[in-house]
């Protein structure tokens, strides 16, 4: 029988595998996706979607489906400590995502993993792929026998009745902590923190007179510690540490029954009372802080999610990190397979995501210590939650701030590399701007959010959400005041239309033959989506008269920077001010397909701006860009 070829074989339909499959299915790839469970997660497991992940899900058009399940939302965390009078007392609350973080959704969304998995599965099926269950992987090799599909993968039904051999361009393991692929590759897990824990997790519906049962709470009492997390459907999750390697009688296989955990919870919550109407899910499982030494050996077989990093569930990071692993790899595979980027760019998946996992594990160790050993006073908590930077910051407040930024997902910062421009980048040009030298944007960090008015329909919109996760680089042209920048914009458009520019080089081959009248995001090329933001009231912007023809083609992405913003109250053009570009002169911001800033360029008359962009995209794509002037 002929061996079937696939673009990607994905093993595991947890958050990482599903998110990767969703992106690649949408972008037209042929995926073989298997999972060894007969059904998606029925109950329990990961449940916290952090603010940055919600942004990402919105950018993927999936937020509405998640919210349709009416998840619990955590805006504040309450701290309960032993009371001098016996029992426990609330010592303070703080914002889950404090005001100093510029987040659209400053809360954690709580919903069980299985419902989230189903949202992705529906999308995958809509785009022509499916998850084949219950199937497992029995072998694989990158034998290179077929140059375009170098990886052979052997798959089998879990009951052993059927098997299948396929070939693929890539194999991805999203198998979770126990990865067959990782073991076969001989990739070791490095255990970071020698301290390991056994956790008990219980989801259920309770009756209680504990007043903060609808809040996220960390409770320390003389009888032990517990974390409470509100959930969808009137449920509550309790996390209880059952054992720690610091215990005298440490046993990583230590178990606890549901009744034992309930008794412990009752003792910790005293003088309040708690009983259970029903238990939805209960699990006791050991957690070690581990990180895979490699995420790939050959840039054909990749791993991500829990297969690469495990840590405590307390900060609700596992699923969120898995999503970001998946999106990071998805667009890079897409760019290589589209011929836009060299194969070498795939190495940035491991360097970027492994560094984030290292940061996560360091944070996880500090976080566990913070909550286990140091109980913050109400005064410290209040100081940390304020937006002001004037308060004298002690170690705790600093750790809290850094932690909140990280746990919300906004602390993710990729280092300079071939994609994230820096003064060491192979592309250099005097118009490329650095952080605090002409812009507030930092390459490798998420684009700062801004609210603007869409010119064509006068809708007030979130600029950073306007271009969906479509695999394209996003080029935001902050046009400043047209009275000053009209010539610069005309020059930019003119140099963009030169045959070997960063723009023309990637035009659709059938650009003249195919009708793309209704295409909003990618009318010229799938490589780039453009947006133009102008410092003027909406009614004063006349797209066809004021913008060069190429830019006017992005009419659905032309915005008036005329919405006042609390964070820059004195600015006339708040979006310009927030990203730190001159409100009159503007600038150009290049953002990676996953929303992280990659380069910022001055907007000037002449060829300079296009030259700088040619340099940047030339280095990113490995192509020689820039050349003579022409027009589309
Ligand atoms: C028991 C348990 C409880 C957890 N509780 C929490 C929690 O309370 N809070 C929290 O934040 N995180 C929790 N986590 C962690 C969280 O679920 C993960 O961080 C997150 O799911 C990572 O996603 P992933 O896609 O990498 O892996 P997973 O979600 O583990 O998905 C891996 C998938 O691959 C499948 N698979 C594995 N091997 C194979 C194979 N050889 N062939 C085919 N399919 C395979 C599995 O069946 C599974 O569907 C828990 C994990 C476990 C195991």
TrEMBL record:
Q: Sorted alphabetically, which Gene3D superfamilies does this protein's record hold?
A: 3.40.30.20, D-Amino Acid Oxidase, subunit A, domain 2 (3.30.9.10), FAD/NAD(P)-binding domain (3.50.50.60)
Q: What is this protein called?
A: Phenol 2-monooxygenase
Top-rank taxon, per record = Eukaryota
GO molecular function of the protein, one example? FAD binding
InterPro entries (UniProt xref): FAD-bd, FAD/NAD-bd_sf, Phe_hydrox_C_dim_dom, PHOX_C_sf, RIFMO-like, Thioredoxin-like_sf
On whether Isomerase is a keyword of this UniProt record, the answer is no
Q: Which residues form the FAD-binding domain?
A: 6-363
Q: Which residues cross the membrane?
A: none
Organism, as annotated: Didymella exigua CBS 183.55
In terms of Pfam families, this protein maps to:
FAD_binding_3, Phe_hydrox_dim
SUPFAM superfamilies assigned: FAD-linked reductases, C-terminal domain, FAD/NAD(P)-binding domain, Thioredoxin-like
Entry's family note: Belongs to the PheA/TfdB FAD monooxygenase family.
Domain Phenol hydroxylase-like C-terminal dimerisation as annotated: residue spans: 412-622
Which keywords belong to this entry? FAD, Flavoprotein, Oxidoreductase
């Amino acid at each position: 029988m002929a061996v079937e070829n696939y673009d990607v074989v994905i093993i595991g339909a947890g958050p990482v595998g599903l998110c990767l499959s969703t992106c690649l299915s949408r972008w037209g790839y042929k995926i073989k996706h298997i999972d060894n469970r007969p059904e998606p997660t029925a109950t329990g497991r990961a449940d916290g979607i952090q603010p940055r992940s919600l942004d990402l899900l919105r950018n993927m058009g999936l937020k509405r489906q998640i919210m349709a399940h009416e998840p619990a939302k955590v805006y504040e965390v309450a701290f309960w400590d032993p009371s001098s009078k016996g029992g426990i007392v609330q010592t303070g609350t703080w914002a889950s995502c404090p005001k100093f973080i510029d987040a659209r959704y400053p809360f954690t969304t709580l919903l069980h993993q299985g419902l989230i998995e189903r949202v992705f599965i529906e999308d995958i099926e809509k785009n022509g792929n499916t998850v084949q269950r219950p199937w497992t992987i029995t072998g694989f090799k990158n034998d290179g026998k077929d140059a375009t599909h170098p990886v052979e993968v052997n798959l089998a039904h879990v009951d052993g009745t059927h098997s299948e051999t396929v070939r693929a361009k890539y194999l991805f393991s999203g198998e979770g902590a126990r990865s067959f692929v990782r073991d076969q590759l001989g990739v070791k897990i490095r255990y970071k923190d020698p301290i390991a824990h056994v956790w008990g997790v219980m989801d259920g519906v309770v009756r209680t007179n504990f007043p903060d049962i609808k809040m996220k709470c960390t409770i320390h009492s003389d009888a032990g510690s517990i974390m409470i997390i509100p959930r969808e459907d009137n449920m509550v999750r309790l996390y209880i540490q059952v054992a720690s390697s610091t215990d005298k009688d440490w046993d990583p296989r230590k178990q606890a029954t549901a009744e034992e955990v309930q008794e412990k919870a009752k003792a910790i919550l005293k003088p309040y009372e708690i009983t259970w109407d029903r238990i939805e899910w209960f699990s006791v499982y050991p957690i070690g802080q581990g990180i895979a030494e490699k995420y790939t050996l050959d840039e054909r077989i990749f791993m991500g999610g829990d297969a690469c990093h495990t840590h405590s569930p307390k900060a609700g990071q596992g699923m969120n990190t898995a999503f970001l692993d998946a999106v990071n790899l998805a667009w890079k595979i897409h760019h290589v397979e589209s011929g836009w980027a060299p194969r070498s760019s795939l190495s940035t998946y491991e360097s970027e995501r492994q560094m984030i996992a290292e940061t996560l594990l360091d944070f996880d160790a500090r976080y566990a210590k913070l909550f286990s050993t140091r109980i913050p006073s109400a005064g410290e908590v209040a100081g940390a939650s304020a937006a002001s930077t004037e308060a004298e910051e002690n170690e705790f407040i600093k750790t809290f701030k850094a932690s909140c930024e990280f746990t919300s997902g906004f602390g993710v910062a990729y280092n300079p590399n071939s994609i994230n421009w820096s003064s060491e980048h192979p592309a250099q040009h005097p118009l490329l701007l650095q952080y605090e030298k002409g812009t507030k944007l930092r390459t490798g960090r998420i684009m700062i959010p801004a609210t603007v008015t869409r010119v064509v329909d006068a809708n007030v919109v979130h600029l950073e959400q306007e271009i969906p996760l479509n695999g394209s680089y996003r080029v935001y042209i902050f046009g400043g005041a047209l009275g000053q920048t009209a010539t610069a914009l005309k020059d930019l458009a003119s140099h963009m239309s030169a045959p070997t520019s960063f723009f023309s080089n990637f035009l659709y081959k059938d650009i003249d033959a195919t009708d793309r009248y209704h295409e909003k995001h990618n009318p010229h090329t799938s490589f780039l989506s453009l947006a133009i933001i102008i410092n003027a009231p909406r009614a004063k912007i006349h797209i066809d008269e004021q913008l060069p023809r190429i830019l006017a083609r992005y009419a659905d992405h032309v915005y008036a920077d005329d919405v006042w913003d609390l964070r820059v109250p004195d600015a006339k053009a708040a979006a310009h001010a927030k990203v730190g570009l001159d409100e009159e002169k503007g600038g150009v911001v290049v953002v990676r397909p996953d929303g992280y800033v990659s380069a910022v360029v001055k907007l000037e008359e002449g060829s300079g701006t296009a030259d700088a962009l040619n340099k940047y995209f030339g280095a990113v794509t490995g192509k020689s860009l820039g050349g003579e002037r022409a027009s589309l």
